[in-house]
Amino acid sequence: MPDLPHLASRVFGTPLLIARAKLEVILGVLAPRLAGGSLEAIEPEADPAPLTSITVEKIAVVSVIGTLVSRSGYLDAASGLQAYGDIADAIAAAMADVSVRGVILDVDSPGGEVGGLFDLVEQINAIRSASAKPLWAVANEGALSAAYAIASSADRLYVTRTGEVGSIGVVAVHVDESGADVKAGLAWTFVFAGDRKVDGNAHEPLSERARATIQADVDRLYAEFCALVAANRGLSLDAVRRTDAAIYRGTLAVRAGLADRLGTLDLAIAEMAAELDRATSARALINPTMKRSLSMATNETEQIQDQPREPQQPIDPAQPAAEVPPDPAPAQVAAEPASDSGAAERLRAEFAEVAAVATQAARLGVTVDAADALKKGIAPDALRRSVLDTLAARAEATTVIAAAPSTPVAGDSPIVRRARERAAAARA
Description:
The protein is an alpha/beta fold. It has helices at 4-9, 20-30, 84-96, 117-130, 146-151, 178-183, 208-233, 237-241, 251-255, 265-306, 330-335, 341-363, 370-376, 380-396, 414-427; strands spanning 16-18, 52-54, 59-65, 67-69, 81-83, 102-109, 111-113, 135-144, 156-159, 164-166, 247-249, 261-262. It folds into two domains: 4-188 and 197-263, 2-enoyl-CoA Hydratase, Chain A, domain 1 (Alpha-Beta Complex), CATH 3.90.226.10; 265-301 and 343-428, no CATH class.
C-alpha cells in the first residue's frame, strides 16, 4: 500500500509542473483521506512493460507515460509514476545502441514534479547533440507541463489530432488542515528554532510571509520553464509567456508553434524511417563517385610526375663552354616559390571532387554550379553538406507514404502490428 504521508509530501507545499486537471484528481484522492482515511492497496504488476521498444524499422520508441517524479522508489509504475532518471537512461541506451537508427519519445503525461526535470532536459539535449541519430517526440495524447518540457527537446514534435500540449506553468498547493484538526480533537504545537522553520505547515492557515516565499519560488521556476521552452522550440520568451499556461489541442498546437506537425506515432515512425532511408541512399550515391574521382585525380598526378624528362645534350669538349648565367641574388631566390606542383595537384583534386559532388547532386535533383563553387572557394565537404541539407529539407516538405512490412516478426510492438494490419487492409 502506498505511504500516504510520503505521497502527500510530494504534492502539497512544493511547486509542481503538472496539468490542472490531473492535479485536481490527485487532490480529490488525497484530501479526504488526510483526516484519517487510507488509500486502497495497489497490487504491483508482476512484469511491468519496458520503457523502450524497437520497431522493425530499427526505430527505438521510448515511453514517457504517467505522472513524472524525480525518483519512483517503491512508488513504482504500479502507482502510475515514472522517474526522470529512468527516462534519461532509456534515451541514452537507445542512442548508444548501434542497431537503432533513431529515437522517438511516445509522450502521454500530465507532467509532475519540478525536482530533476531541468537536469533531465539538459541531459537529453546533451545526448541529442552528441549523437548523429534523430530524436523526435509525439504528444500521444498529452505532453503537458513537465512532459512538454521533455517533448520540446526533440528535433521534431508531432501531436495527434486530439492530442494536447502546453500547460507551461507552475503551481503549488497548500492544504490547511486546521479545521479538520479541530473536528478530530487534535491540537498541534511546534517547538522550533529558526523563524521560518514551520512556515507553510498544514496545521495552521498560510501566513502572508509563507505565501510570499512560495510565490517567489513559483515565479522563479516559471521563468526558467519559459526560457527552456523558448530555447528548445525557437520561440521568443514573450511568445511562450503569452500562452499563460493554456493547453492547445491538435492543429491549434501547431499554429501556436508548440508542435511541428499533426500526426500519430505510427506516422512519425514511418516518416523517420523513410527520411533515414533517403539520407542513406543519397550518401551512398555521392561517396563512391567522389572516391573514384579522387582516385582518378591521384592517377593523373602520378602520370604527370612519372613522365620522362627531356634528355640532356651530351657535352662536346671541342665546343666552347656556354655562358652560365650568374646565380640570382638571395632575395630573388626567397621571393620565388621552390615548386608549385603541390598546389597544382591540390587544385586538380579539389576540382575533381567538386565536379563529382555536382554530378551526383544533379542525379538527385539538386543543381550545383561547380564553376561558381570553385570561384567562391567553397570546399568540397561544405558543398556536400549543402546538398545533403537541401535533400533533408526537401524530404521534410514532402508527404511520406510508407507501408508497414508484411513479414511477421516475433515480439513486435502494438504500434507495428497496427501499422501492418492497416497496410494489409489497404492492399485487400
